[in-house]
Amino acid sequence: MKHPQAYRNQQVVILGLALSGVAVAKLFHELGAIVTVNDKKERDQCPEADELTALGISVICGGHPESLIHKDVRLIVKNPGIPYTIEPMKKAEQLGIEVVTEVEVAYQVCTAPMICITGSNGKTTTTTWIGLMLEKAGLKPIVAGNIGRALTEAALEAEPDNHMVVELSSFQLKGTQDFHPKIACLLNVYETHLDYHGSMEDYIASKAKLFANQTAEDTAILNWDDPICRRLASEVKASVLLFSMTEQLDYGVYVQAHAAVEQEVTNLHNESKGSEDKHIVYRDRNGIVHPIIAVKDIGIPGSFNVENALAAACAALTLDVPFAVIEEELRNFRGVEHRLEHVATHNEVLFYNNSKATNSTATIRTIESFEQDVILIAGGLDRGSDYMELFQIFQERVKGLVAIGETKYKIVEIAKLAGMSRIKIVDTGKQAKDAIAEAVREAAAMAKPGDVVLLSPACASWDMFTSYEERGSMFKQSVHTL
User: Fold this and answer.
1) Pick the residue with more confidence: 214 or 198?
2) 123 marked ligand binding residue
3) Considering the chain, what is the average pLDDT of its residues?
4) Which runs of consecutive H residues, i.e. helices, occur in 198-248?
């Protein structure tokens, strides 16, 4: 797309309100475009509409009228969650109208370099970690995107000496064209969101758009342990920096099986106590290995968070953040809400909120992070998966299951196949708050001292809740009122 100022006196349609839609609508309106905002929700469910109407922006709620998209529309900015299969999108394609997401608009107006993070799992933790590292190093980060703050709003505030640290979803990336981050990080790629993308190929292609416009002057950070990331590492044009939990890399950040770190400059080997401990290290282009932190000293648990730590360290090192700063933030960070968040301990039973686990892989990796027996609360929006990937972890690590949401019977079937006998099903005809409260009570009744009650749904939340945040917050409230 062109710079937003090029749409002065031209018709621009914003599909979907929410934070990003409001920010984009205001931007185009201020630059003189003729803006129409459309949302399928009724007007009383669109509190943002009044603010835009007061500015003189046309707002249409309650559906997508046939007259919305026509030959005089020059650009459509689509909320990332809106599928490409709805009628306005089909009509736009027929008329050859350009369709982008807010990310493309934000890129066009941003004067600061962008450090962008995507992946099936771990985006928010990694993005937050990078922001903290850059803040400590005095690099003036602005954290935005899928993490909560509208990217366009943040981009307009950015100065050239800021660093935009941006979490991006595949939905957002799919609608980009000229978007060009200075540093692009892909954490992992697992099968998810196929109801939106239609195929794994489209999902991967959307993630890969993160690197599409990078050049040799940019940096692409990729997970060497992920087969799709490994393939993309050979295809991108940017300078590649790898991270790995399983292999010692010629250049990159990886987990070393002991604390002895080669110091080739001095030809010395420095052994620390507990030399069998795993450490995160960085091997630079000269082959010198620099210790960063012992894995056991990372501030949040779970092997997946070690992976996130590796990626965050890569981004920070690319911007010359000192090793001491990286080590300090990896040690002191205590996690992000709704991501393996310790809520409370009742009667020696630990309650954890991992509502952000919206796919099976995230749930499996979370369960694997505990040594204790797990009572799992799982289930949610049905996207067509059979959830067979949960079979082994159910068989080996899950002591009991409380199933909720549209997928409850599918997940229960896997639990039964795995030989699990402690199973409860919560009636989803109840109010969401009552259903999650019942799930917490049932899980607590199954648990013994020393067990973990874990909300890790393996599903999106939209069957019963407005967001995974609402689901997690209701879970926490229910735990605190046991």
Assistant:
1) 214
2) yes
3) 92
4) 200-208, 227-233
Query: pLDDT at position 371, please?
Result: 87
Domain ranges in the chain are 7-100, 105-332, 341-480
pLDDT digits (tens, 9 = 90+) for 116-135: 999 998 999 999 999 999 99
* Cα(353)–Cα(180) distance, integer angstroms: 35
- Asked if 26 and 55 touch (Cβ cutoff 8 Å), the reply is yes
The beta-carbon contacts of 473-478 under 8 Å, at least 24 apart in sequence, are 474/432, 474/433, 474/436, 474/437, 475/343, 475/353, 475/355, 475/377, 475/436, 475/439, 475/440, 476/341, 476/343, 476/353, 477/433, 478/436, 478/437, 478/439, 478/440, 478/441
pTM for the whole thing? 0.80
125 labelled binding-site residue:
yes
User: Euclidean distance between the first and final Cα of the chain, in Å?
Assistant: 53
124 appears as a binding residue in the annotation: yes
Asked whether the domain spanning 341-480 has the same topology as the one spanning 105-332, the reply is no
Q: What is 7-100's CATH superfamily?
A: NAD(P)-binding Rossmann-like Domain (3.40.50.720)
Which CB contacts under 8 angstroms, 24+ apart, belong to 407-410?
Answer: 407/379, 407/380, 407/381, 407/382, 407/458, 407/459, 408/379, 410/382, 410/385, 410/386
pLDDT beyond 90 at 238: yes
Question: What is the DSSP-derived secondary structure letter of residue 268?
Answer: E
pLDDT at 274: 37
Annotated binding residue 121: yes
Lowest mean pLDDT among 268-282, 341-355, 415-429: 268-282
Is 21 annotated in a binding site? The answer is: no
Distance CA 389, CA 383 (A): 15
| DSSP per-residue letters across 390-446 | GHHHHHHHEEEEEE-STTHHHHHHHHHHTT---EEE--TTS-HHHHHHHHHHHHHHH
Which residue carries 């954890």 as its tokens?
Answer: 352
CATH topology of domain 105-332: UDP-N-acetylmuramoyl-L-alanine:D-glutamate ligase (3.40.1190)
Q: Is 278 marked as binding a ligand? A: no
Q: State how beta strands 239-244 and 252-256 pair.
A: parallel
Residue 293 has what DSSP assignment?
Answer: E
Fold of 341-480: Protein-Tyrosine Phosphatase; Chain A (3.90.190)
Per the annotation, does 162 bind a ligand?
A: no
Question: How far apart are alpha carbons 64 and 66 in whole angstroms?
Answer: 6
Section 218-244 average pLDDT: 97
Helix, strand, or coil (residue 145): strand
**C-beta separation of 78 from 89 below 8 A:** yes
